[in-house]
Write a structure and sequence with these properties.
Keywords: ATP-binding, Kinase, Magnesium, Metal-binding, Nucleotide-binding, Thiamine biosynthesis, Transferase. By secondary structure, the protein is of the alpha/beta class. Helix content is about 50%, strand content about 15%. It is globular and about 45 Å long.
Amino acid sequence: MNLNNIEKVCINLSTVRNNIPLIQCITNYVTINDCANILLAYGASPAMCEAYDEVFDFTKISSALYINVGTLTKEQEEAAVLASISAKVNNTTVVLDPVACGAIPRKAAVINRILELGRVDIIKGNIGEIKFLAGEASAVRGVDSLDSGEGALDACIRLAKKYNCIVASTGKEDFVTDGTRSAIIQNGTEMLTKITGAGCMLGALCGATAAYSEDKFIAAVTAILSMNLAGEEAYETVKVPGSFKVKLIDCIYTLTEEKLKKEGKIIWQ
């Protein structure tokens, strides 16, 4: 069957819900509950396993591993590296979220260890983080990107080729590439920047969509489009951050293939 890209995205969503992938998350303490809840709402099974003595074996039985370095404790650091090694040994999909890597040198050092010793299938970050990892000058403030987005896709392509992985960059427009194919996703709402955890929740969703997908490029597009469309729908009825965050989870839960197909605004390259 010769499917177009948006049809593949729709199938990806159904695959998650039909298979309930187990997503191991080593993530930051600010948003750990948000990541767990959005995975449940999407149809996946979250496991927030970060104990050093457990991660190697747990990664072995997981469908995908999500590593977020936002609030990196020493145990998380060693656990993340060990889990990524287990993922390499056991062929487990890995999503890396390089939070604040451009602001804190230690985070960059840990990311380099993960990339050198383990496995990474998708790098998902804001444009400041992606440009930093690609070796370019980037404007950041803590965990936030101040970058205008100019040259974002080129930076993503360079990073994807450097590490032979999928790179997804978020901002006013979202970019996904495998170094050859690219997608520019134009859905979304500014309200996603007014709540804590939108980026972390998206990273967790990337783990869910990539878990049973051989095409990690389509998987990353599915996760971002899902988050953006849910955000748009939530903002239609809720205009303030606290209630918006609750409504976002609801809209992820009720998201359909039809909505992805009809409302997705994607430029495929």
